[in-house]
Amino acid sequence: MMLIPSTIVLACLFATATSTAAAQRGGGVFRQGQPLPDLELPTIDGQRTINLADLGGKKVLLIQFASW
Amino acid sequence: MPVWHELTEGLRRSGELLVIGITQEQHPDRCRLWAQWQGIEWPILWDPFNLTDSFAVPMVMAVDEHGVLQSMRLDPRRFDEQFGDEFLAVEFPEPKQQPADPHPAVREDNCGPARLAADDMFLTPEHAMARFLWYEKVHGAPMPEKEFDHAIRSMGMGLDGPADHFRLGVAHRLRYDSPFHHPEDFQTSIDH
Fold it and tell me: Which element (helix H / strand E) includes A50?
């Protein structure tokens, strides 16, 4: 049986823990269980702005993405 | 991401669900064309300076009717169970805490006339970003050349890490797209 070097095991554990922690931490200013931040941004067409903290009243699907 | 667009189209059109996108790109035009191509009509917010501190995309999140983030990294393969039963069908309690302002300096009121005068010599990166985002809205006119140059000079000072470099690249791209572009702005925006 091949022994896996301990450094590789530790690196994998660290990566797993980091990604898990990151997932729990969420996308930067977004925190699971917390209100959306008071952050206003313009729309891509430049026609208006939306403050994330004002998104109340109905359920929201919020998607952070890149078009590339 | 288009899969979420398809899965939620009926809910969005019925008014039961609001769909909002956030994209972090140097320039909004590419995303605008992509959204047009995909037939996306819901609003997409432009976050060129990564104020949302995004570290991985896509990030698909469910926000309840009180504005509380209930679920992150939704799986479209579990749409009925995860999104339908565990989110849409649930009435969530009101939150106890208020939303936090993660970037208080990157606001409209930090590029008004008083701020412009006060920042004559010292411009923080946050105030520079506020100018790029809000100047035209606040002043009713495009940002003048001296403000572009001042903001870019300020953002180029004390660069500390990839995020600062990316933001400086965005600033150069925004000036490149303005009437005051410098010939080297496009390449500089890529280099950062």
Answer: strand A49-51
- How far B118 CA sits from the closest chain A CA (Å)? 23
pTM recorded for the entire structure: 0.82
Give residue B120's pLDDT band: very low, low, confident or very high (50, 70, 90).
Answer: low
Q: Check CB contact under 8 Å for A30 and B70.
A: no
| Side chain identity, residue B34 | W
For the stretch B60-92, pLDDT in tens is: 999 999 999 999 878 889 988 888 999 999 999
Instruction: Count interface pairs A-B at CB distance under 8 A.
Output: 197
Phi and psi torsions of B107, nearest 5°: -130, 165
Number of helical (H) and strand (E) elements in chain B, helices listed first: 7, 4
ipTM of the complex: 0.86
Q: Which of A43, A56, A61 sits opposite B67 (nearest CB)?
A: A56
Query: By 3-state DSSP, what share of chain B in percent is helix, strand and coil, each rounded to 5?
Result: 50, 10, 40
pLDDT digits over B2-54, tens only?
788 888 999 999 999 999 999 988 778 888 888 888 888 899 999 999 999 88
**Selected residue with higher pLDDT from B119 and A12:** B119
Give contacts of B133 with chain A, Cβ < 8 Å. Answer: 41-42
Nearest to A43 among B45, B72, B100 (CB): B45
A34 and B97 within 8 Å at the Cβ level: the answer is yes
Identify whether the C-beta of residue A27 lies closer than 8 Å to the C-beta of residue A64. yes
Q: Which of B63, B103, B133 sits opposite A36 (nearest CB)?
A: B63
| Helices and strands, number each (H, E), in chain A | 1, 3
